[in-house]
Amino acid sequence: MQRIVVLAGGIGGARFLRGLRQAAPDAEITVIGNTGDDIHLFGLKVCPDLDTVMYTLGGGIHEEQGWGRADETFTVKEELAAYGVGPAWFGLGDRDFATHIVRTQMISAGYPLSAVTEALCQRWQPGVRLLPMTDDRVETHVLVDDPDAAADPGRGDAGDGAGGRRAVHFQEYWVRLRAAVDAHAVVPIGADQAKPAPGVLEALAAADTVLFPPSNPVVSIGTILAVPGIREAIADADVPVVGLSPIVGGAPVRGMADKMLAAIGVETTAQAVARHYGSGLLDGWLVDTADADAVPDVEAAGIRCRAVPLMMSGPDATALMAAEALTLAEEVRA
Ligand code: GDP
Ligand code: CA
């Protein structure tokens, strides 16, 4: 049986995984999920990327939105707002709240996040083994020009930069500020002290193939790779590592990967992202047919590259993408 390990963020990772399950129904798939987006709200621990994977593969996702539960209601959120208790900018629905209550209760009882995730997956049966990248707390922060400095001129120092900058939680950057301001730096706080969760290094050591889905290269896959031991385990593994570009035609398909790439000095192109990972990590890279002219550039960096359709427009198109990734993996293995 083929053992596949996938590093995943939220929507891009989750949708790809659904295609992979269809393309390789007999494979044993282990997902290493990003937890840098995790946030504590209303006393609850929220894990947006793990939940997006769990709900998507378990059939509970809000399909059009790509995150959160289908058939959701927002009574609790409205009641909290009536008490003046925020933040109002983070949309937690009633069904979703239950997940975070169960998670927080188990963590308070002493269970590590990996055990909690396994317990939540008992209900959702995602058909993959879902592991958080770490049981330790990691929080991605984004350095921005103080978004509130204009309203309070005394606080900021818009004139010469540094004084007017502020680090905000990634969720605040993305959800409250809608990534409308430039990011100067992205810092996965706590990552350097974090240990891979139980099962992560074991899964990588036993893998036949490692895949990077079209997830955010900075705040999803980059954060997972920032946990000491994970990048090394992938680089040292003697198995094909194949990625799919989240950048198509010089732009993210959705989300703010362009802003995050700019913050780390990487161009928003399919080839620049491949070069950023580098041949030390990647053996193969798929770009969209719209980026076919990027193939020679990627191959010049020592990474086998093919141009195939990379739009996850539906389950079948996504399964074909996954099949292409597995084909490229076999090609580099040979
Ligand atoms: P997030 O945590 O919800 O942001 O999700 P991920 O990190 O897993 O994925 C976000 C990335 O997926 C973004 O950079 C998007 O450009 C990319 N993405 C989303 N849909 C598609 C698609 O259909 N095709 C490709 N190639 N990339 C996609
Ligand atoms: Ca995410």
From TrEMBL:
Recorded metabolic or biological pathway in which this protein acts: Cofactor biosynthesis; coenzyme F420 biosynthesis
Signal sequence interval, chain numbering: none
Family matches, as Pfam families: CofD
Coiled-coil residue spans: none
Enzyme class: transferase
The protein's required cofactors: Mg(2+)
Gene3D superfamilies: CofD-like domain, CofD-like domains
GO molecular function: LPPG:FO 2-phospho-L-lactate transferase activity; magnesium ion binding
EC number(s) reported in the record: 2.7.8.28
SUPFAM superfamilies, per database record: CofD-like
Keyword line: Magnesium, Transferase
The keyword Transferase is assigned to this record: yes
Catalytic activity as recorded in UniProt: enolpyruvoyl-2-diphospho-5'-guanosine + 7,8-didemethyl-8-hydroxy-5-deazariboflavin = dehydro coenzyme F420-0 + GMP + H(+)
InterPro entries to which the protein is assigned, alphabetical: CofD, CofD-like_dom_sf, FbiA/CofD
BP GO annotations: F420-0 metabolic process
Amino-acid positions noted as binding 7,8-didemethyl-8-hydroxy-5-deazariboflavin in the UniProt annotation, renumbered to this chain: D51
Cited function: Catalyzes the transfer of the phosphoenolpyruvate moiety from enoylpyruvoyl-2-diphospho-5'-guanosine (EPPG) to 7,8-didemethyl-8-hydroxy-5-deazariboflavin (FO) with the formation of dehydro coenzyme F420-0 and GMP.
Family: Belongs to the CofD family.
Subunit-level organization: Homodimer.
Protein name stated in the entry: Phosphoenolpyruvate transferase
Naturally occurring in which organism (per UniProt): Streptomyces alkaliterrae
